[in-house]
Amino acid sequence: GLAGRASYNWNYRYFIDFNFGYNGSENFADGHRFGFFPAFSLAWNIAEEKFIKKHLEWMNMFKLRYSYGKVGNDKLGERFPYLYTIAKSYKENDKDVTFPGWNWGDYGYGNSYDGMAYTQLASENVTWEIATKHDIGVDLSLFNDKFTATVDYFHEQRDGIYMERKYLPGIVGIVRSNPKANVGSVRSQGFDGHFAYKQKINRVNLTVRGNFTYSKNEILEKDEENTVYPYQTEAGYRVNQAKGLIALGLFKDYDDIRNSPQQTAWGKVQPGDIKYKDLNNDHVINEDDQCKIGHPTRPSYTFGLNYGADYKGFFFSMNWTGAAERSLLLEEFFRIPFGINSNNALMQFHADNRWTPETAETATVPRFATKTMTHNSKTSSLWVKNGN
To answer: How confident is the model at residue 355 (pLDDT cuts 50, 70, 90)?
Structure first.
């Protein structure tokens, strides 16, 4: 690789910085090994201007900045994806299974021979994953550095994400080994900032600090199959977004069941079972009615506040942190009253909130059953909990 940097600042007022990397990786085939990754930044410290110094002496720093750059990633989770491998067997359920070959006994010879097949196809065009980053920021320092703050807006688009091609048509002839390629793209953007305020009152030094981050991502492209219903494609969703059925509550009685779309794809239903929304309006509830539910487990907002005071060597502080716009999806184990194999103790929230004819108006958990109700344990909005 080759790297370089050039920087210039004039009178602590104007700044410009440029750097680059020209990097090669043995992980890629010849012709795809090298990537050029430049970056530059500009900044203007307005507080150093003469008219600011003259009229706004309390402003120690007011810096505006912008940066742009590209970075590359060659850590794709495997070495040398441009090479193929051939073997006599493949793994299935953690067991070695031999590729079938010719059975000459069918032709009267009485012998059979093992076959050979690709266990990894060569992906010769695989190259760097590239993230393009933009950042606009402000740095403040006021009143002899009593108050300081930094705020940034960031925007990043990561292209060429290395993914398995799971949905190539069968006519391609790939049986046991899907190829991989740079086909994914994700955009992330948001705000990030922190501040601090320091004040001395007699012999007591007080400090207040705070921070916040808002970050949201969106899948732009992904290897996925075509679908009749746009709400089922992950493009447009956030990374690790849960998908499932939308629960409209619990069936109150048999009239409620008869007047609702057919919901027998996973067994017969009774009062107290979950009622799902018919998203595609075909009057039948099935896998085609799954869509985005809740928020991802990673929060969109994180924030914190810290207070501190010291007096003659004694120090006191407290720290508050929080997260918001976050969901938790209960795993299947917690959706079934007595565990998946009915060999666990009853969970309290099932006992307290279950449906009965007497609690039909207030129940939030389906009825009890002597066997596992697949219909009720399907991934749905009923099992999405507030993770704030």
So the answer is: very high
Identify the H or E element spanning 38. strand 34-45
Residue with tokens 């090994």: 33
Measured between alpha carbons, how far is 375 from 269 in angstroms, rounded to an integer?
8
Q: Which residue has the tokens 């969970």?
A: 347
CA–CA dist 339, 385 (Å, integer):
19
- 287 Cβ partners below 8 Å, 6+ apart? 265
Rounded to the nearest angstrom, the gap between the alpha carbon of residue 254 and the centroid of all alpha carbons in its chain is: 41
* Alpha helix (H) residue ranges in 194-323: 254-258
Q: Which amino acid is at 269?
A: V
> What mean pLDDT do residues 257-263 have?
94
Q: How many CB atoms lie within 10 A of CB 93?
A: 5
At residue 89, the pLDDT reads: 72
Alpha-carbon distance values, 347 to 217, 331, 368 (Å): 35, 14, 12
Average pLDDT over residues 366-372: 83
Q: Are 29 and 1 in contact (CB under 8 A)?
A: no
* 376, containing H or E segment: helix 374-377
- The C-alpha atoms of residue 23 and residue 29 are separated, in whole angstroms, by 14
Tokens of 230: 């746009």
- DSSP-derived letter for residue 235 is T
Q: Please state, in angstroms and rounded to a whole number, the distance separating the CA atoms of residues 155 and 192.
A: 11
Q: Where are the beta strands (DSSP E) in 46-74?
A: 59-73
Over the Cα atoms of the chain, what is R_g? 30
Query: With bands split at pLDDT 50, 70 and 90, how would you rate the model's confidence at 324?
Result: very high
